[in-house]
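Usage example:
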Amino acid sequence: MGDQDFKNSVEATLKVIGGKWKPMILCHLQEGTKRFGELKREMPEITEKMLTEQLRELEQDGIIHRKAYIQVPPKVEYSLTEYGKTLREVLDVMSRWGSKHRMRRTE
Amino acid sequence: MGDQDFKNSVEATLKVIGGKWKPMILCHLQEGTKRFGELKREMPEITEKMLTEQLRELEQDGIIHRKAYIQVPPKVEYSLTEYGKTLREVLDVMSRWGSKHRMRRTE
DNA sequence: CGGTATCCGCGACGATACTG
DNA sequence: CAGTATCGTCGCGGATACCG
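Running the assembly step on the lines above writes:
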């Protein structure tokens, strides 16, 4: 693989998980299916607008699945797709490196 | 490790390599030591300002080493630190996932 | 050669109000 | 409950000029 491909592929990954809130969202969805309000409650700092936007982008990238129940009151569930679950390895490696890095910076 | 730590660690990694030009810079430095002008030539799209800024940040994070030769004309060499080389695993995993992701999107 | 300094546009992100 | 719509802010990154 050429340097260009290597770099472009890294950037493609960053586009998918690089959003400000996406790692956090993906982390919460590792635990399983969650409703919109559940995610909102677990991430009080995020606005509804940003949560919606980031969820939509993750959905478009095939990472998460959105299941809307047509009922009143509305109910929407978000979960990782099988494809989205393949991101776990990436997140794990990043988490491990980041954890060492943080330790290093505070030594 | 708690969810908070996991998420914070991923974000710590993103802070280090998430900059717009950093994956590209790190990719070029995998090949070995490079001079400022060399990097500039290999990345014609980046401005000198951004190249300088991103190199400084990578240096502050301990990822790269900056060696300035006190002479006229100036000569500055950048290289990965031993610590910076540990990022390779992270970049590799991201590259592999991103490459599959790009294929998937164009199927 | 390898940078700074300065100015500025634009898009990401936020706050708030409203709705099916 | 799960969103839109609208408006406002902020800082990243680009353009250009200058410097040791």
